[in-house]
Amino acid sequence: MPVTGPEIERLIQLLSKLPGLGPRSARRAVLQLIKKKETLLAPLAVAMADAAEKACICSICGNVDTQDPCAICSDPTREPTTLCVVEEVGDLWALERAGVHKGRYHVLGGVLSALDGVGPNDLNIGSLAERVEKNGIKEVILAMNATVDGQTTAHYITDRLEGLGVTISRLAHGVPVGGELDYLDDGTLAAAMKSRRPF
Amino acid sequence: MPVTGPEIERLIQLLSKLPGLGPRSARRAVLQLIKKKETLLAPLAVAMADAAEKACICSICGNVDTQDPCAICSDPTREPTTLCVVEEVGDLWALERAGVHKGRYHVLGGVLSALDGVGPNDLNIGSLAERVEKNGIKEVILAMNATVDGQTTAHYITDRLEGLGVTISRLAHGVPVGGELDYLDDGTLAAAMKSRRPF
C-alpha cells in the first residue's frame, strides 16, 4: 500500500536503485529533498536532465565526460606516449584527483573473470593493443586493482602487448602511506619487504 | 581540479548532499547513473521534476503528499477522532507501512531540545491543541521516539492537552519482536519487566 503520492513513490523507487541507497535510505533522502525543494530537489532535477543529455563516453579512452574525445584525450599538454590502464572510470577519476599521472588513460570496463564469464572480448583490450601499435605508445602503466582478477587481467594484457616494443610497468605494492603494520595483511607485508628501498 | 565535465561535476556535488551519500558514493552513483542513462538517469530527472512540482505538505497534519489535504486526512473511512502524534514524516510513513493505525496523524516536525534551541513554538504543537479542541478528538497516541528528547516532548504535550478531555496514550516499551534479551539495554529490560503481561 503506498503511503504517499504516486510521483513521490516513483522517486523513492528510482532513487533506491542507486548504489549505496536502499529503500529505507531512499525514503529518507526523498523527505530531505522535499524539505529542500527549491535549493536541492529542483536543481538536482535540472542537473540530471543536463547530465543525461550531455554525458558521453570517450571513444578513445572510455572516460566519462561531456565531450568526445574527453578533456584528457584532447589536452595537448598531456604526455601522449604514456598510457595508464585502469579497470573502471572511477579508478581514472581517483588517479586524476591525486594528480599523479600526466599521460593519457585507457579504461578496460572491467576485469577478466572466468566466474562471471567475462572474457578478453568483453573488455577494451583490443582497442588498447591498437592504440599502442598505432600511436607510438612508449609506456603502458597497469593500474588494475590488487585483486586476483585484476592481476590476472594485468598478466593477460602483458602477454597481449608483448612484441609491440612497449615498456610495461605496474603500480608498486607496499605499506599504504599512513598505514600501520599491525593492521596489514601478510601479502602486503611480504610485498613491502621484498621491494624494500635504500633509506 | 575537476576530473570530468562541469554538468557531471555539478550532479556529483548536488547528489553528495543527500543523507547517506558522501562525495565518494555520489561519484559512484553518478557513474552508475550515466551507465544506465536511458533506464535510470533520464527517468530520475523526470521523476524529480514531477516531485518538485507536485509535492506539498498537508496543511492539516504535516504529512508529505502530492495533494493537500493529504490522502490520509481526506480519507473518509479513517477514524477521525484518534490522532497519532509523530516527530517526523518518516515516522508517519513507517506506521503506515506497518498498517497499525487506522486514525489520523499529526506531525510535530521535530522534538523539543534545549541544546538545539527548539522550543514549543518551533513545533506544530499549537495546531495539535487546536485540532484536539475543535475536532472532537477522543484519543491522542504519542508515538515519539523513545529518546530523552522524544519523551520530554511527550510529557510537554500531555501537560498542554490536559483539561481538554482527551485520552492520551503512548506506545508500549518492551522487547522488540524477534529481539534477543542478551543484546538489549538495561532500560528496555526494566521496562519490559515492569509492564509484563499475563501469559
TrEMBL record, chains A, B:
Pfam families: RecR_C, RecR_HhH, RecR_ZnF, Toprim_4
Presence of the UniProt keyword DNA repair in the record: yes
Domain of life: Bacteria
Residue ranges annotated for the Toprim domain, each copy included: 81-176
UniProt KW keywords: DNA damage, DNA recombination, DNA repair, Metal-binding, Zinc, Zinc-finger
Zinc finger (C4-type): 58-73
PROSITE patterns: TOPRIM
GO molecular function, one term: zinc ion binding
UniProt-listed SMART domains: TOPRIM (SM00493)
GO BP term, example: DNA repair
Job of this protein: May play a role in DNA repair. It seems to be involved in an RecBC-independent recombinational process of DNA repair. It may act with RecF and RecO.
Family from the record: Belongs to the RecR family.
HAMAP family: RecR (MF_00017)
PANTHER family hit by this protein: RECOMBINATION PROTEIN RECR (PTHR30446)
NCBIfam families given in the database record: recR
Name of this chain's protein: Recombination protein RecR
Gene name per UniProt: recR
